[in-house]
């Protein structure tokens, strides 16, 4: 099965086109917890004298400064990105999120009427979801919907001949450490895009499985050295050419900065690879 002819057309239109596919969605911003308590009124020091208003103001300024430093140490929030033309979340045609069976960790096979398994080098993806408003504390109980293309660069539920497949799509709920893990295959590189994985973060599993409002939609980038190795294996030959024709710096999603989206990947083609990323929301 070859790459769909419309891949280049759709993805080369850039963000304006892709964002239009998110029609009914509005970006929700995570709200932080309670702010620093205000320091008001006058007290007395150890000598019994009233403290001046300037002393109180200085204390408040110091506290605010310390709070800002803690937030800064947490790192940069992961940017919002397009869900692309093939999300299958109800915003652009099919909706897999409301189907029974979508909550699963192993997303290599279709569920429901088909049990077709996607071919490719094994890959596990582990995401850690943290809250930048709370000094990057883990977010338990969030839901992550993750999807990506297959070995041919096509997306289930959209690609020619795989409209009735739903492999390489799944939802997981984050644990007490804010972690989710998916078992999948290494995605191809198709024309016009750097190798990537899409995901949406929802405030809860119930919100995800009713195709509600995501807290964040973004993408994970895969490192070049690993892509080069994987694409040297059987079935990925077309990805060699596609990878050579683009770069992270020229990609229409990652070109404006990919530092917070580039996964750390370990492993090999025989045992499989593991990709990890901390996602700051």
UniProtKB/TrEMBL annotation:
Taxonomic superkingdom: Bacteria
Keywords: Dioxygenase, Oxidoreductase
Lyase in keyword set: no
Residue segments, region Disordered: 50-93
Intradiol ring-cleavage dioxygenases domain sequence ranges: 117-192
Keyword DNA repair: no
Record GO terms (molecular function): ferric iron binding; oxidoreductase activity, acting on single donors with incorporation of molecular oxygen, incorporation of two atoms of oxygen
Compositional bias segments (type: Low complexity): 52-72
Name of the protein in its database record: Dioxygenase
Species per Swiss-Prot/TrEMBL record: Actinokineospora terrae
